Amino acid sequence: MKIKPCLDEYLEYLAVHRHLSPLTVAANRRDLENFIQALPGQETHSIATIEELEIRAYLMQRSAQGAAAQSLARYRSHLKNFFAYCLQQYPELLVSNPVELVSTPKIKRTLPEVLDVHTLLRLLDIPTNS
Question: How large a percentage of the chain has pLDDT more than 90?
Answer without folding.
Answer: 52
